[in-house]
Amino acid sequence: MTKSPTQQSQQPMVELRPPSAVSYKPAEYWESLARDQLEQAEDPGLLGAVCYAGAPLWLNEFFAHFQRKALTRALRRVRRQRERGVTLEIGCGTGRWCQYLSASGPVVGVDLSPSMVRRAHELGRGPQFCLGMAQSLPFADNTFGLALSVVVLIHVPDELKPACVKELARVLQPGGSVIVYERVRPGLGAQVHPISVDGWVRLFVEQGMRLSRCEAHEYAPLLRLLHLVSKMLPARARTSRLAADQVKRPAGGRAPMTAASLSRLPLPLRLVARLVVAVSYPLEYVSGWLLGSRLANSALMVFEKT
Ligand SMILES: C[S@@+](CC[C@H](N)C(=O)[O-])C[C@H]1O[C@@H](n2cnc3c(N)ncnc32)[C@H](O)[C@@H]1O
Question: How does strand 298-305 pair with strand 209-217?
């Protein structure tokens, strides 16, 4: 869906601040992002709050489509663990995966943003939601047969990641599994702290878990190319005039190109971007084979508590 210039000018600017210039306070960051994004009428799936904030809906829908495919496949493989009882999702946001999971069993979602949890409550009839931090989960030991982390730990600063994984291991039952879908390289998002596949595996193995599956996901080669090309354009050429008036430039530097910048491209470039996304759907199915797993942006890993 293409936004009018007036809508563009109302876009939040969170993602335009260079990460290094802003100290990341997760609770404040996610709460303010949720407040900005949850009222966007043109985003009925609320993807702006849980995918790329401020990005065009058609871009977020592309990523959401392939995430869902990957999770559906992974969930089939952990049916036995799901049957053990309740499933936990950490960093559940507005609860899109909890909703999805609740069709086939009880689910609890936990998130640090009160606005996300409130909205998840309003939307969800099946799952339960509560406020909490991944690094100090409000649950007893050995509670869950299955847990999920979808694009959450990537937003946790590196020094806190071991505490989050330790908590996941603590609340999982022995023999229980955790599905982890996280980025393995920086991308178009804000406040990401990606680590390599080996880094993710080490993190979980150090907390007594065993890797039982690892798949590469999210290639989007044309989008990467578009990102590279648009980075080379002068800021004036890649920002529509109306949007440019609203953009705060970092002192002495260029604003980084983010997924949200696609909403501010001049119309012809925005049409090219939309075409690139349309072509990226079929291309994504063969990209793994064409490019090899090393070039994937994300990984889906399943770990088992031994
Ligand atoms: C990119 S969104 C993903 C939401 C959800 N997993 C999904 O895919 O729809 C990241 C979510 O993680 C939450 N989050 C970030 N750090 C967290 C932490 N330390 N503890 C709990 N939730 C956290 C944020 O509030 C946000 O809702």
Answer: antiparallel
